[in-house]
Amino acid sequence: MAEEHAGGVRSAVSDLTPKLVLTLFAAGISALLIPWITGKWQDHKQQLELRTALASDMSRAYTDVIVNGRFVTRGLVYSGSTIDAVDRAASQTVWSTALHDWLVESGRLTAELSGRYPGQPITREWRGYVAAVSAYMQIGAGGVPAERVEALATARGYVGEGTLDWDPLRTKRPKTDLKFRASYTALGSQLIAAGDRLVEEELTLSPRV
User: Fold this and answer.
1) How far apart are CA 103 and CA 71, in angstroms?
2) What tens digit of pLDDT does each residue of 117-155 get?
3) CA 173, 176, 180, 184 torsion: positive or negative?
4) DSSP 8-class letter at 117
5) Is the whole model's pTM more than 0.85, yes or no?
6) What is the spatial distance between Cα 108 and Cα 37, in angstroms, rounded to a whole number?
7) Which of helix, strand or coil describes residue 127?
8) DSSP structural state of residue 119
9) Following DSSP, what letter does each residue of 135-196 receive, concatenated?
C-alpha cells in the first residue's frame, strides 16, 4: 500500500514538473518582457511628444516672423495716430520685436535640434534656414545698403536665383514700391514652404529622449 502511495506521489510530481517549469519560465519571460515592452512604449510616446512639440515650435516661429515682416512692409501696422512719425515708430516696434523674438526662438530651436538629433542633417539645414529668414527681415527693413546687399545674397543663395524677380528687392523705399511688395511676398511664401518641408522632415526622425 505504501509503495502504491509513493508511486502515485512520484507520478504526480512527474506530471507537475513540466508544468511547473513552463509556468516558471513564462513568469520569468513576463518579468523581463513586460518592462521592456513598457519601456519601449514610453520611449516611443516621449519621442512622439518631442517631435510634435518641436515641429509646432518651428512652424510657429518662422510663420510669425515672416507674416509680421509682410504686414509691416505692406503698411498694415497702424498706431491709430494721425502723425506719420508715430505710425513709423509703431511699425519699427513691431518689426524689431518680431526679429528679436525670431532670433531668440530660432536659437533655442537650433540648440534643441542639435541635442535631440545629434549627427542628423536637420540641425545644419535649420541653421541655413534661420540665416535666410533673418536675411528676409533685413531686406524688408531697408537700412544700410551694404547690409541689404549681403541679405539679398543670403536669401538668393538659399531659395535659388531663378525663383522670383530679385531686382525690386533692391529698392530703397520698400513700403511704397508695389513691385517690391510682390517680390517680398513671393520670397516670404517660398520661405514658409521651405520651413514646412523642414517640419515634415523633423516629424520623420527619432529624437533622443
Assistant:
1) 19
2) 999 999 999 999 999 999 999 998 866 677 888 999 999
3) positive
4) S
5) no
6) 33
7) helix
8) T
9) HHHHHHH---HHHHHHHHHHHHHHH-GGGS--GGGG-S-TTT-HHHHHHHHHHHHHHHHHHH
